[in-house]
Every structure is written in C-alpha cells, then in structure tokens.
C-alpha cells in the first residue's frame, strides 16, 4: 500500500492524517509515479488552513519528484524509468504521498545533473524565481531589489539569480543567523526586521532613492514598509502573505507612494504556455547544473512528520528549502 497525507477539515498542522491508499493503474494521459522526494512550501499551509479552498477531504502538496513506474495510453513523451519533477497548483495537489497517479502534462523530465532531492527542493521555488527575475520587470545591471524572507528557499534562489543579473540585493531576515545565510547566497545588505525599521534602512542604503522592485512574501505585516521602500514609479510584487492577507487596500495610496505599481502574480500563469514553461525550465536547470545557483536543502523530514514540518515552517524555524524524503 502507498502512503498519503490527507486532511478532512481545515485548521492547524494537527488536522493532517497519514494514511494507507491504494494506487491503481494509470488511465489515458496519466502515469503512475513513485516519489523520491516531496517539496515543502508555504503554500501548503494555505491549503491546510483553508486560505486556499479545495473540496475536502483532500491531499496536500503540489511539488515532488520521482520515477515513473507505469504509463497510460497516449503518453508518448515519457517512459517507465524516467526521472521527473513537477509543480503546479490544484491540478497537482496530492504530492504528499509515496506513490500516485498523475497527469503526464505537468511532468518535467530531469537531466542527469539534477537529483530528485534537488528537484523537489527547487521546482516550485526555482520556477517562481525564474519568472520573477525574467518576466516581471525589465531589470538591468545596477538596479536594486528588496527581498523579504531572504533566507527562505525562494529567497536564496532569487538572491543568487539577481546577482547573476548584476542587481543590488537588500534582504530582510528575522535573525542574525539567517542574515549570514542570506549574505552567503548573494545579499549585499541584510535588514533584521526584528529590531530595524525596514523602510528607513532601505532609504539609507539607497541614498534616499529606494529600490526598483520589492518582492514581498509576507503580506499584511510588511505591505506599508514595502511601499515605503520603493523608488518613484517602483514595483511592489506581492508573492505571498505569510503574515496574513492585505485587506482594505485603497488604490489611491499608490499615487501617494510615488506612483508605485503593484502586482500579485501566480506561478501558474507563467508556466501555462508550454513554450514559455520550457524556456524558464531550461534557464533554471542550466543555472543549477552549472553551479551558478546553489540549492540549499536545510531541512529533511519523513512524510509522516508532515505536521511537525508545517509547525517548523510557520514558526520561521527553517532556512533554505525543505523536503520530505519518501
């Protein structure tokens, strides 16, 4: 029997259940995939808590890698034994499992240079970094960014990618230890938001000008300081809301903050087109395979310890990427 993590009601980490499940044969367009590693992402907590709503009971997780064990009718671009990775949104929900049936459409074949563990740690984060760095803003060398949660899995990839493009990176962290991690992965400056005024410090570091772009994955607690950190006509990219959603937003505030721009992008819209997805995948895999971007897997959990993994993630105890070993 395969194992799966499911939840029957929304709530805290304790709603997660580790259960046996029978996995049958793949139907048309599907494969049976044996997972090797599963990614742990903050978005997983949004599904579990009900922030992202799905019909219950439900599986959890939308990023994993593994080996194909069987293919269904019509699947011609993949074969038994192929190593693959995937990420998505509701169309791939159920990654917290040892084995599953899944559509072949979102699967990405892995090159020899990238292990299943690294793939599970970077597919969602890496593709997110790819579209943020290559599609959101016309960056040029010398531009500057403010990156919240700079020591997180996505933050470390974005920092390294930004340095490849010649950008100045200012990262926010919660501890001195996380500041060291962020600087080791490309941050030029770090701000410990536990005791520093983020916007004030950004202005000091940029001679009063502000940054071109802010990548904000925190949400409610950082929204105003993010706007206050932008240069005139800068861009605030809301990529998450770990502290809660921003509510009561008045668009007129953008004019008062220097005619700022605001966007709330989603990965799904940047990988929906197969050609664009392939281009982002090739660039990401190329950087990782060549060692230009390092993927730090700093936490490894057993799948049955999913509840504890969520507690660690939500309490900000983690750095870099986290995975489940299957």
Automatic annotation (TrEMBL):
It comes from Cupriavidus yeoncheonensis. GO terms for molecular function: mRNA 3'-UTR AU-rich region binding; NADPH binding; quinone reductase (NADPH) activity; zinc ion binding. Keywords: NADP, Oxidoreductase. It holds the Pfam family ADH_zinc_N. Residues 11-324 form the Enoyl reductase (ER) domain. GO terms for cellular component: cytosol. The gene is qorA_3. Its EC number is 1.6.5.5. InterPro entries: ADH-like_C, ADH-like_N, ER, GroES-like_sf, NAD(P)-bd_dom_sf, QOR-like, Quin_OxRdtase/zeta-crystal_CS. SMART domains: PKS_ER. This is Quinone oxidoreductase 1.
């Amino acid at each position: 029997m395969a194992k799966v993590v499911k939840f029957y009601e929304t709530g805290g980490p304790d709603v997660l259940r580790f259960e046996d499940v029978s996995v049958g044969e793949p139907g048309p367009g599907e494969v049976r995939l044996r997972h090797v590693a599963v990614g742990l992402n903050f978005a997983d907590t949004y599904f579990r808590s009900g922030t992202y709503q799905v019909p219950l009971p439900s599986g959890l997780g939308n990023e994993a890698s593994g080996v194909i064990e069987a293919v269904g009718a019509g699947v011609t671009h993949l074969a038994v034994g192929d190593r693959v990775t995937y990420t998505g949104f509701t169309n791939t929900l159920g990654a917290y499992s040892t084995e599953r049936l899944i559509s072949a459409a979102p699967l990405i074949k892995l090159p020899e240079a990238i292990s299943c563990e690294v793939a599970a740690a970077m597919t969602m984060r890496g593709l997110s970094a790819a579209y943020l760095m290559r599609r959101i803003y016309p960056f040029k060398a010398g531009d500057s960014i403010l990156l919240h949660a700079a020591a997180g899995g996505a933050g470390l990839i974005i920092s390294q990618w930004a340095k490849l493009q010649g950008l100045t990176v200012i990262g926010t962290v919660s501890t001195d230890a996380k500041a060291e991690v962020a600087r080791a992965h490309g941050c030029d400056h770090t701000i410990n938001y536990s005791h520093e005024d983020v916007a004030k410090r950004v202005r000091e570091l940029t001679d009063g000008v502000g940054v071109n772009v802010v990548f904000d994955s925190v949400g409610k607690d950082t929204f105003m300081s993010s706007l206050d950190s932008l240069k005139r006509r800068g861009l605030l990219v809301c990529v998450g809301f770990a502290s809660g959603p921003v509510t009561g937003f008045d668009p007129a505030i953008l004019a008062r903050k220097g005619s700022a721009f605001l966007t709330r992008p989603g990965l799904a819209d940047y990988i929906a087109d197969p050609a664009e997805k392939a281009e982002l995948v090739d660039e990401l895999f190329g950087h990782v395979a060549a060692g230009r971007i390092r993927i730090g897997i700093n936490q490894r959990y057993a799948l049955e310890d999913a509840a504890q993994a969520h507690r660690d993630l939500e309490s900000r105890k983690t750095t870099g990427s986290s995975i489940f070993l299957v």
